[in-house]
Design a protein that fits this description.
It contains 14 helices and 11 strands. By secondary structure, it is an alpha/beta fold. The strands form 3 sheets. The chain has a 7-stranded parallel sheet, with helices on both faces. Helix 2 (about 35-50) crosses helix 5 (about 120-130).
Length: about 425
Amino acid sequence: MQHFLLRQVNQIKQGGVSALYRKLNKIKPHLINFPLYISAIPLVALIRIIRPLVLIRWYAIVATRIGHFAANIELYACEKDHNINVPAQRHFDIFFVGHKPICNYQLFIMWKRVLRIWPHYFMYPVMIINKLIPGGECHEIKTSNHDRDVHNLFDKSSVHISFSDQEEIYGASELRKHGIPEGAKFVCLIVRDSAYLEELPYHSYRDGNIQQYVMACEELANRGYYVIRMGAKVKNSINSKHPKIIDYATSGSRSEFMDIYLGAKCSFCISTSTGFDSIPAIFRKPIAFVTVPFSYIYTFSSKYISITKHHISKDDGRELSFSEICSMKLDVSLSSSDYHKKNIELVENSPEEIRDLVIEMADRLEGVWIEPTDDIKNRERFKYIFSRCQLSNKRHLHGEFYSHIGALFLKQNSHLLK
């Protein structure tokens, strides 16, 4: 406790008035909820007493971010299906929204159909009091790694949520309103940019330029696909006049329902590895990823294909190989400052590289993909480097390596495999 108090004092000294204000804002909800905390004490005591008969567990849903709201809970359901992190004794699982706002009420409605979601005001005090009394860890629902499918369960499990008959009818009618005919193939495109989480600039290393994706989108559109540009908050419109490329994000007609419906019904998704892609993921849709950092590539499913940005040394203008990225610990860097400190510039993939990634996905799904001559050798070399990175970074991020790495990307960038 003394160490905790000293840390708070030091943080206030360093941060000044703004730091004190943030601390007070964190304390304020606890002061308001203090009577609820007191009333939760006998309930927590009762829960502990009846534990030999039935174990009551709870989970605070991360509902403020769509990625965690979708993937974390789906992985709980998958693990339960496969008897992973499931108590041997009789148990009763309860969910509640940890913090508001709820980022998508349609998803909330769908989870309520399959989970016991109880009120925040009732369960939050129970969780807090249980944490304060030693010995209550078994009452907290745990998953193996939050939103990462480290047991490769998505390919082995059924989807756990679905649309009602009325929602299916409504969704189909909304597709037609957006210009997508019944039965037409469409792809969701989500490119994170600086308009997303502007208050968190340390995540800017993940941003992309939507215009880099126009070539890929037009190639897909010429093949008969509709391409739907997704995003709740985006900086720029997509610069294409192709009638089958729909900028849903800037159309003024996006809705929480259609965000989920489009992600669930698309042929596949193209993503810069951001929250929305968890929607097609939980509905078992294929995804073509542009992922940074590269040790966070989604390896869990054979339905995924990935490439990564180019890492250029500002000192000599040379591109780092995958092994060099790992040796500098940039393969797991989750802050833009890490790249700046090591004088590394992240250069976006060219329109041609993105097009090749997307066409590989389309060809694989259509059964016409032809492997490049060096693909097997390059893929095995990548997996060898990747496995060595995982051993060194000591983070449990993956299970079996089921996914693909862009075949043409590896072929045309063989220097990365040195």
